[in-house]
Amino acid sequence: MDWVLYTVLLYGATAAASYFLGCFNGAVIVSKYILRDDVRNHGSGNAGLTNFYRAFGGVLTFVVILTDVLKAVIAILLAGWLFSSGGDFFIVVGKYWAAVFCLLGHMFPCMFGFKGGKGILSGGTIAIMLDWRIALVVWGGFLLLAVLTRYVSLGSCWAGASFPFATAWVYRGYLTDPGLSAHAWFVVAMGAFLGGMILWKHRENIKRLLAGNENKFSLHKKKP
Q: Residue 136 is part of which domain span?
C-alpha cells in the first residue's frame, strides 16, 4: 500500500475510533437512560462527574467513573496497537493523536447534541495512559489544589495548564533530535491542544474563581 494512503488511513481510523469512544459520556448515559433525568438539566448543566455527583450522588457515580475511564483506556491502547509498526516514539504520537479525539468526543459528543463534559476524568486517565511522569504532574497538582481549596475547578485548571509543559519536559530529549524533532514538536502541540481544551471548557469556572463565587466541592450532594 502507498505510504501516504496508509498514513491517512491510519490517522483517520484512529481519530474516528477515538472520537466515537469519547462520545460515550458516562454522566449522560447513566442519567438519561438509567435515571431518566438528564444531568445537563441540573446544576451547572455540565455532563461531567462533579455535576453528576452533586445532582444525584449514589453508587451510580461509580458507573460514570468506570465509563469515562474505560473509554480513554481503550482509545489509547488501540492507538498504541495501530501505531506499533513505526517504533516507540511513533506509538507516542499515535497515543496523543487518539487522546485529542477521545477528549473531543467526550466534550462534544455527536450523539448527545455536542454537549458533553469538561474532560477532567477522561483527561486524567489519558495522562496516566500516556506517561506516569505526566500523570504525576497533572494529578499531583490537581489533588493538592482540590483538597486544600475544595475548588475542583482550580485543580482542573492546573491539570489543563500543566499538561503541555509536562509533555515538553518528558519528551525534551526528542525536541532537538534531528530525526524526531518534528514528531516531538507535534506531540507538544497536541499536549497544548489537550490542555487548552480543558481550560476553555473551564472558562466560566475561571471567571467565578476570579470573582470569588465559585462553588466548593462537598461530599454531600445538593438537595433538590
A: 3-211
